Amino acid sequence: MNDAATPDHGSDNDVRDSGPPSGGPTRRSVLRTSAGVAGAGVAAGAAGTFGAPPATAAEAADTASAASAADGYATAPPRRGRTMAGVPFERRSTVRVGIIGLGNRGGSMIDLFLALPGVRVVALCDPVKAKCERAAAKVVAAGQPSPAVYAKGEDDYRDLCERGDLDLVYVATPWETHFAMAEAALLGGKHVGVECPVAMRLDELWALVDLSERTRRHCMQLENCCYGRNEMRVLRMAHAGLFGELLHGAGAYNHDLRELMFDPDYYEGPWRRLWHTRLRGDLYPNHGFGPVANYMDVNRGDRVVSISSFGTPALGLAEYREANMAPGDPSFKESYVSADRTVSMVRTAKGRIIRLEHDVSTPHPYSRINSLGGTKGVFEDYPARIYVEPDHTDHRWGDFARYADWDHWLWKEHANPPGGHGGMDYIMVFRLVQTMRLGLVPDFDVYDAAVWTAPVPLSHLSIKAQGAPLPIPDFTRGEWRRTRPGVDSAKPSD
Q1: Any idea what DSSP says for residue 375?
Q2: What's the rounded Cα separation, in Å, for the pair 122 and 190?
């Protein structure tokens, strides 16, 4: 989960609808417009009624422009390289890692990289020098040579990416910087793993697909929830046919973040909260979407084709601010437009449906929903429960713990993994390093990163279009029809 804490210097000004990509944006243009989102003409206040037919000429114009923007990105630009689907890493005995961003997320993930054999942390980057120094001390304490430090400013990551002694760049920074950093890593000849979301614009997603194909380097969304124990167990059960023919799934990020978003020490500035002044839609779909996409073999035999999104009024953050922040706090200058809860319906080529939810602005126990249903039964998480035939016929939920034999081999090998989020962070890093050292195909690639992130700009556009279904691009350019392994991978023989 991306709780990176580094300073935000983005603008909260309105951004305008942009046209289809033509070769991808330059690094300089991305840095100048990092707060932008493809097709995102954000109004100064929250929208009034969502899902109702357009009542004014302005709403009708919004609907037309949003649909036009999405259509413009739905057509795949000409491929400028070869597909990266099924392309293995180069085999290597040691994975040399550079880490960009050493806040909450990066500062803790470095411990997991250092805990693995065959990993050397070579370089560190953060504009806050004290963070680099603390992280460098961890590297030395682990018995590795002192890493190079890049702390001369917000652009110093470029020098890190140009080093000749790195295999992987790991990015854990505020969202608006993800694209530019991934771009720099790919252009520097490095594989790159990015915390979610991988980018915030549709043109940026296409640019990363293009760069990965041209540079022959993998760009991966490091989605830790795909490696949760329950998620991996359900994945194996789904692929073994225990749920029958798959029909529907659901995923979410429902997590009350109000206190943290107004805490200047946790996020070290308002960068995450400011996104609620820019976009109306689902700001963080990856945790829920990634696992369900894996269950349904999205990009590996099926693909997502459209999304329709709806959002409530944006009230929660303003109410929390009024009740908890001192008069005169800078946050009172902010106008929140992001719906307190968004609900999106995603349709696949095989006719399956996936429901996505996002809510970080109202009181709610943590839930990613994590549900999957088919012709033989259903699983639902939070709490975990199952009902599948012929095991269950009494209309009562069954005990999911009874299906522990279906655990993925990674969880059987690492029953009590270290690290945060119940061990899924460690499993993710272990598996990434394993595939790189053995020269295997990564569990997911740039096409997965693009698909799992596409709901960020598209849900915003769909809400602008009064919930109209909008096309989701085929980032694979037809490769989705070819079945291939993903997270449900075979255990390596060596």
Answers
A1: T
A2: 13
